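Issue 218. Parser rejects a valid record. Input:
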Amino acid sequence: MSAEPPTTGASPALTASPSKAETPAKKPREYVYNTIAHVQTTAGWYILNGFGTVPVLRFLVAFLLSGGLLSTHYL
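Output the parser choked on:
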């Protein structure tokens, strides 16, 4: 039976620093793009958030129509 020689000091994994060739390449970050509309009325203020301009404009028109805020104005 052969015995392995005893190790002295810190483990090689702790002392060796990885070279730049060994580090994994960073992939680009993925971002989420939101469109935010701030609406202020006499009753308070609201923030409408959506995944693009068209959905936020739909939210805004629905908000204005449901609250009766367009009753005295023409589109």
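Fixed in the parser; the record now loads. The mean pLDDT is 79.
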